[in-house]
Amino acid sequence: MVALLLLFLTIPAVFGKDVKCPEGFQHFKRTPTAKNNHTKNWCLGIFPADRLDERDRARSICANNNATLSLPENQKESDFIAAFSTKHNISETHAADGQTSPRCAARVYKAMKENRVFNSLAIKGECNLKNKYYLFDDSNTDPAFALAKIVDPPPNQFSTFWTMVTPKVYHFAECLTFNAQLIPKNATIPGYAGTSYCVGRPVGKVDQEHEFAEHQPEIKSVICGRHPL
Ligand SMILES: *[C@@H]1O[C@H](CO)[C@@H](O)[C@H](O)[C@H]1NC(C)=O
Ligand SMILES: *[C@@H]1O[C@H](CO)[C@@H](O)[C@H](O)[C@H]1NC(C)=O
Ligand SMILES: *[C@@H]1O[C@H](CO)[C@@H](O)[C@H](O)[C@H]1NC(C)=O
Ligand SMILES: *[C@@H]1O[C@H](CO)[C@@H](O)[C@H](O)[C@H]1NC(C)=O
């Protein structure tokens, strides 16, 4: 009897390890691999706020929630983002983890200057999309799932500005976004990754050089991730 009781007392400790995420986050079990730093459990949350096309604001919202920018790692996590977006009537894309590395950004500027196409899917080495074209705040997410959801190989949005009296200045959309929406009566929820300029849409007066940012799509939510409690 005592042995049986002990058995029951130890079972929850071994098998039922209660993994909890803070309010506002949803728990996901993950397959630990070298690519997600052997993460077994992860909490994802979507947080609304204004002007999240400005990368520092998006990053700060996650920091305020003791989290970092993050990404869905598989279809189940992407479907959660779709369900949340539909429930909260968010049709805009979400700010998501991933920003072009400074070294690869420099190579994009060089290609722009030389009027060459830079295709991160085709390029060999460090700046290939599947290599280190993007750097991530979160080391607990394997970005392969989200990167496979990019429709146009990045960089895919550009702006160049110069006048007679100013230098030529290059801009391109360096930050990743992710969008998924439930489609009624459709079991397939695809999910799309896209790019946005990391600078926010201008607040107030817009000078000509920054007009490109005025026309970028609004982002009003961000995907954050953290370890469970
Ligand atoms: C991976 O996880 C280990 C243990 O949790 C941690 O010490 C290490 O800093 C993590 N690595 C990175 C790159 O975050
Ligand atoms: C973040 O962590 C701190 C310290 O553990 C805690 O006091 C605070 O309530 C947390 N904030 C949120 C939003 O989870
Ligand atoms: C959802 O958003 C759309 C466009 O932003 C708006 O027209 C509509 O009224 C919203 N619906 C609800 C239920 O909030
Ligand atoms: C359902 O999803 C598939 C795959 O994305 C798409 O081809 C199809 O057009 C969708 N059907 C409807 C009714 O939206």
From TrEMBL:
Q: Which PANTHER family match?
A: C-TYPE LECTIN DOMAIN-CONTAINING PROTEIN-RELATED-RELATED, C-TYPE LECTIN-RELATED
Which SUPFAM superfamilies does the entry mention? C-type lectin-like
Give the keywords, sorted.
Signal
**Which residues are in coiled coils?**
none
Q: Which domain of life is it from?
A: Eukaryota
| Stretch forming the signal peptide | 1-16
**Name of the protein in question:** Protein CBR-CLEC-136
